[in-house]
Each structure stands twice: as C-alpha cells, then as structure tokens.
C-alpha cells in the first residue's frame, strides 16, 4: 500500500488560481496517481475536513481562505486506445493533463473533434464537470467515459456518457454527485475523418482572413483560427488575473426573445432546444460595464475587449470581484429581465 503524499499546512493558493487571489489553504497535498489519491483519502485529517480538488484553478474565485484540504490533481498520461472501427480512436488522458495539451496531442495524431475547444484553460479533470464548450462544440460531443474515485470509499469506478448527465456547462458532478467523486482520467472518442464545424462565431471569417478556404479547412487550421479569436478577445491569465468567461450565456424562451428583440433590435440570439441562447457579454456591454475599473487604482474590473471576463489587475480580493459580479447581474436583471448565473465556481 503506497504512502500518502505529504500534507502541507497553511499554503498560499495565489499561484494555484488564474485570478491570482491570495487565499490560503489550511492543508494542501498534490497527488500524481490513483493510488496516491486513495492513500490521501485514507488519512484521518483528510477524511474529517472539507475537500477541494484543484486542477488548473482556471474556473475558481476564492473569496476567503479555505479551512479544509486542497487536493491538487497532477495525474498525467496520454494513451491512444483502439476504437471499435477504423473511423474513430479513443484517447485516454490523465485528469492532471493540460486541456489544450490534449487538443494539441490529438491534432498531432491526425484526430479531430477537439479543435473548436483549443486554448481553453484548465485541466482534463475539470472538463467534464462543467461540460466545457466553445464555438459550437461541447466536451460531451467527444466524450466516451471517465474514471473517478469516490471520496467516501476510495473506490475507483467508470461513468458512461449517459451517467454523466451533461447539460449546458453542467454535469451530474455539479448536481447530485457534487463533491462525491474526484475525476482521475477521461476517455475521448475522436474521429479520423474530419467534419469541420465553422458555423459558430467568427471562425469562418477568421479562416478567410488567414487565407484559408472555410469550406474544407483542416483540423489544425480550425484550431489556429480558434486560438487567434481567443487571443484577440481574452486576456492571458499570466498577464492579467482572470478565469475566462465569468457568466454563462442565458437561455430565454422564444416569446421572451421576441419581446426583447422588439425593444433591442440588435440583440443577438442562437436557437437552442426550448428557446434562444443570448450572449451574456452583449447584455453586460449594453449595461455599460465593458472596460469598467473599480477599487483602489482600478485594480479590478471588466476586461476592455470582452465584457464577459472579470479581471484582477493586481491586489484585488475575491470578495471585491464577487461584489462586482453581483452588481453586473443586478443591472442586467433590471435592464433586460434576464438572470445571469456565474460559470465560475465561487468559494
């Protein structure tokens, strides 16, 4: 039976979250295998306290110190598994792998299905928890199954696509099974044949600006276009503290959308089952928040190029950022009658 990794006391989490918030963990340990995780979960100090699993820390806002144990997932590994036919392949990725690293690996193997999800920050283990998505593609579109350890028993089990209960930025792990399992590996079903998805956002026009035909781009070219778009819109967390899109894009009924469209003719919308998805960034920008700065010296606020992104220019507290988010939500509610919900996990 392997020994548990060392438990550290009173560890700053500033370098473990992309917002750069200087919260502190009472206890902290990193694990690099299922066996190390199981050994940690057997420790009385771990069993008896609140647990937080950290990957890349790119979807978190700390508003306080964490009076429990932070478990840093560093399980690595990329393995190609045979698919059931010659048109697909299975890629198994350790939960601690960088998500974008997995996308690059898949492209290097001539596999498609992940290119629209290029440059999304964070690790593989977090991807299924919130069913990450971008530019018309979601993780569930390429998902086969995952492996996870049950916190209470230490048992490893598999979850099928259906068992994960995927929805828009949702899964069973954010609902009925929240805080009950730790993802250790994800298996993706990828295509050897390419069917480019360039209909969403600015992918088509970006490809054309790059001198590439938008009718039959390669997976690598679609990835390059997505990377170009993301870099033009979203700040690099290494330069400005942020967690990417702070809010989910709300969905409204067709009737509500038509009602709003009559009042705001420029309101964009994308049909989804049961209604219309409205870009949260557009709503926030219409309320005048884009580029807003607050706090001493304007040390936090809303990104100048993308109103969906809240930023820490340096020295902000998580409580300040949360208060700003609540102000934004209230203004959108008042102007449009639409309730915004954070995509970021607030602790």
TrEMBL record:
A single GO molecular function term of this UniProt record: FAD binding
GO CC terms, sorted: cytosol
GO biological process: cell division; cell wall organization; peptidoglycan biosynthetic process; regulation of cell shape
Keyword check for Cell wall biogenesis/degradation: yes
Cellular location(s): Cytoplasm
The organism's place on the tree of life at top rank: Bacteria
Listed pathway(s): Cell wall biogenesis; peptidoglycan biosynthesis
Alphabetized UniProt keyword annotations: Cell cycle, Cell division, Cell shape, Cell wall biogenesis/degradation, Cytoplasm, FAD, Flavoprotein, NADP, Oxidoreductase, Peptidoglycan synthesis
Catalysed reactions, semicolon-separated: UDP-N-acetyl-alpha-D-muramate + NADP(+) = UDP-N-acetyl-3-O-(1-carboxyvinyl)-alpha-D-glucosamine + NADPH + H(+)
Main enzyme class: oxidoreductase
The enzyme's E.C. designation: 1.3.1.98
Main location as per UniProt: cytoplasm
InterPro entries, sorted: FAD-bd_PCMH, FAD-bd_PCMH-like_sf, FAD-bd_PCMH_sub1, FAD-bd_PCMH_sub2, MurB, MurB_C, MurB_C_sf, Oxid_FAD_bind_N
Location of the active site: 169, 245, 343
CC cofactor: FAD
Main function: Cell wall formation.
PANTHER family hit by this protein: UDP-N-ACETYLENOLPYRUVOYLGLUCOSAMINE REDUCTASE (PTHR21071)
HAMAP family documented for this protein: MurB
Family of this protein: Belongs to the MurB family.
Record-given protein name: UDP-N-acetylenolpyruvoylglucosamine reductase
The species this protein was found in: Hymenobacter busanensis
